[in-house]
Amino acid sequence: MKISWGTGIVIAFGLFITFILYFVFTVQSDSKYDNELVVDEYYKHDAHFGDEMTRVQNVADLAQKPTINSVSNGVEIVFPKVFVPKNIKGKVSLYRPSNKKLDFEIPISLSDATTLLIPKKSLAGGRWDINMEWQYDGKSYLSKETIYIN
User: Which band of pLDDT confidence, cut at 50, 70 and 90, is reported for residue 133?
Assistant: First the structure.
């Protein structure tokens, strides 16, 4: 039986479409390819985007900014000496883009030192997005940083 060019092209397109549909259904149904949002209630989060940008700008306007560094024993957040440590209130949110189950938050509670250490044992290796929301003297701030843990 001889197959013409037209029939061959239709068969090739049919096989290609079948492969693509198989791939899409496999990825959508398999739990190891989890398609979750970065934030729950995405639209509510975006409604407050203007406020978020104001808090980010407040950090940019500071003469001395807090720093977030990856050190050998974890993640170190250092506030400048101009801040009174006990007046800094807020939280640090650590997001793992590849696995929502690893996300966690810790409160910022400083007594005399201007350094907050997040131990390495609570951080899996890889990329972490860190959002630090904090208040000082009635003003709100938001620092965002991405770090990589080995």
Answer: very high
